[in-house]
Amino acid sequence: MSKRGNSMLRYALINAAHNVVLNNDTFAQYYKSIVAQGKSHYCALRHTAHKQIRVIFTLLSKNIAFDLA
C-alpha cells in the first residue's frame, strides 16, 4: 500500500474493511475471491476498502438509502 496520504485515514479504511468482511456476506465473498487469486490478506483488505469506498460514494451521490439486505 502506498505511504502517501493521511496515515490515520488509511488505518481507518483498512480497519473498516476488516470489520465489514467479518460482518457482511457480500464483502466477505469479495474478500475471499481476491485471496483465491493469490493475493495477500492486506492486499485483499485494500481491495475491499476500495470497494467499500465506491459503495459509499454511490450511496451518497445518488441519495440512496442504505439497505443491508
Key terms:
3 helices; mainly alpha; 69 residues
Describe the structure.
With 69 residues, this protein is mainly alpha-helical. It has one domain. The longest helix has 21 residues. The radius of gyration is 13 Å and the shape is globular. 12% of the residues are buried. The mean pLDDT is 93.
Write a compact overview of the structure shown.
The protein is mainly α. Helix content is 72%, strand content 0%.
Q: Could you give the order of the helices and strands?
A: HHH
Based on CA atoms alone, the radius of gyration comes out at: 13 Å
Shape: globular
| DSSP E strands, number | 0
Structural category: mainly alpha
Helix-strand blueprint:
Elements: H1 7-23, H2 25-36, H3 41-61
Helix pairs in contact: 1-2, 1-3, 2-3
